[in-house]
Amino acid sequence: xxxxxxxxxxxxxxxxxxxxxxxxxxxxxxxxxxxxxxxxxxxxxxxxxxxxxxxxxxxxxxxxxxxxxxxxxxxxxxxxxxxxxxxxxxxxxxxxxxxxxxxxxxxxxxxxxxxxxxxxxxxxxxxxxxxxxxxxxxxxxxxxxxxxxxxxxxxxxxxxxxxxxxxxxxxxxxxxxxxxxxxxxxxxxxxxxxxxxxxxxxxxxxxxxxxxxxxxxxxxxxxxxxxxxxxxxxxxxxxxxxxxxxxxxxxxxxxxxxxxxxxxxxxxxxxxxxxxxxxxxxxxxxxxxxxxxxxxxxxxxxxxxxxxxxxxxxxxxxxxxxxxxxxxxxxxxxxxxx
Length: 338
Fold this sequence. Notes:
By secondary structure, this protein is of the alpha+beta class. The chain has two domains: 43-188, no CATH class; 194-321, no CATH class. It contains 13 helices and seven strands. The protein has helices at residues 7-18, 21-36, 70-76, 110-113, 136-149, 155-170, 176-184, 194-202, 216-226, 240-253, 257-264, 286-306, 311-321, and strands spanning 43-51, 54-61, 66-69, 86-89, 93-96, 119-122, 128-133. A five-stranded antiparallel sheet has the order 1-2-3-7-6. A hairpin with a 3-residue loop joins β4 and β5 (93-96). α9 (216-226) packs parallel to α12. The longest helix has 21 residues, at 286-306. The protein is globular, with a radius of gyration of 25 Å.
């Protein structure tokens, strides 16, 4: 063998044999990072996000995407480490391992299935890092809360549900994107056209085919909160319900979103819009954001109804948690309506 190896190659083998296993591993890691350098997204800003005393590392990538590190996501879910593997459900749905338990399947919405991919990026120190979209956390929280309320969780999954309730309260008054921007300092350097760029991520260039996005319960609960008899979905809703939908949904998802959608979907000569505004939302970002917002609204509707509150009290609850973008948050004066 020595006869076949000569020159620099022979010296390289000799040097490798003289190194400790730890040193060889460090050299190999450095070489791998060098090969990877320059490919994929990179972190522009990094920071620590404090949610109810749980400190999570986060970043804003050069693509504009907000991410939680893989270890932070596991910490948020009260798990020691990332579970191995991914599972494909019917329809070629690719989910992270912490969502692959069969007892969770019925609680996983379509919106989550398009936001759950692991993200590989370069940290600011040049190392290779892995994480998940920050938008994924509140969706995963909802899955475990729903499953817990249905009584289907295992003893080990109960630990995750306990953490989910805690984080749900912490996220109640703020959007995860805004939290990451603040933690990383990104809000100080956002370009002036960031809003326009953000809306471009939410609004599609082409009209999508109609698909049911608003749950029946959302409309039924509006009628219940207003004290109106519910006629069912087969009967045309009162015209004012469209106003309530704009106020509760499109005015609160993103600044200027309602106006931009209506410009995309103008009324015809008969005064009707040719499509539903939600058909102009992007499948990867707009649709999941809408689904998560509607889920939150339905939760507040249920809470208001269970407490015997009426419509005005419900709207005030929503105003505190999901204020209209650009609106001043109302001070918590005592409520008169019950």
